[in-house]
Structure formats: structure tokens, C-alpha cells
Write a structure and sequence with these properties.
This protein has 102 residues and is an alpha+beta fold. The protein has helices at 2-9, 23-30, 34-43, 58-67, 85-93, and strands spanning 12-15, 18-22, 53-55, 81-84.
């Protein structure tokens, strides 16, 4: 139990003075493709205001990638979305059904 908590804590970053998780890490936790997670969110974008989710700026993504070795291999076309605690909670609730992920 403690090891899982430590692993989860390593997926939490502080950006814009908010604790957030990257879309890629959330997709991994739910066992879904990143593309599927982002499509589900886009279909329900009104449920994710800026205090739930935001997209990183070029500078934020560059800084994060320079700090974390595994991000250097991340060659996605678009900058990642990050989710605050409220956004992660919204994803895990699974309502409405079009964006149920878990």
C-alpha cells in the first residue's frame, strides 16, 4: 500500500501553483490509450473548466521535459493536458457515460 502511494505521488507535479497530473499518467492509471482519454475529455469539454484541466504552454512543457528524463522520449504532436485534483475526480466519477474511463 505504501509503495503504491509513493508511486502515485511521483506522478503529481506542481504547475501554475496547482498540483496536477499529466494526461499520459492518468491514461496509464486507467488502462486506456492517451488518445481515448483526450477524445473523451474533448467530447465533454464543458465539464472541465480551467480549474479542472489546462494545456501546458510551450515553456511549461519544455521545463518539465528538461527535469524528467522519461519525458525527453515523449514525441507527441501536441502539448499535454494536465488535470487538477478536481479534474482527476471528474474523470474517475464516470458520469456521463461517454467519458467513463475506469
Amino acid at each position: 500500500m505504501t509503495q503504491k502511494l509513493v508511486q502515485l505521488q511521483k506522478l503529481i507535479y506542481e504547475i501554475r501553483m496547482q498540483k496536477v497530473m499529466l494526461d499520459r499518467d492518468i491514461a496509464d492509471l486507467y488502462g486506456v490509450e492517451l488518445r481515448s482519454l483526450n477524445q473523451a475529455v474533448k467530447r465533454n469539454i464543458r465539464r472541465f473548466p480551467s480549474d479542472f484541466m489546462f494545456q501546458l504552454t510551450d515553456e511549461e512543457w519544455k521545463n518539465l521535459r528538461s527535469q524528467i528524463v522519461t519525458f525527453k522520449k515523449d514525441t507527441r504532436k501536441y502539448k499535454p493536458y494536465v488535470f487538477t485534483e478536481q479534474g482527476v475526480s471528474m474523470l474517475s466519477r464516470g458520469e456521463p457515460s461517454p467519458y467513463r474511463l475506469g
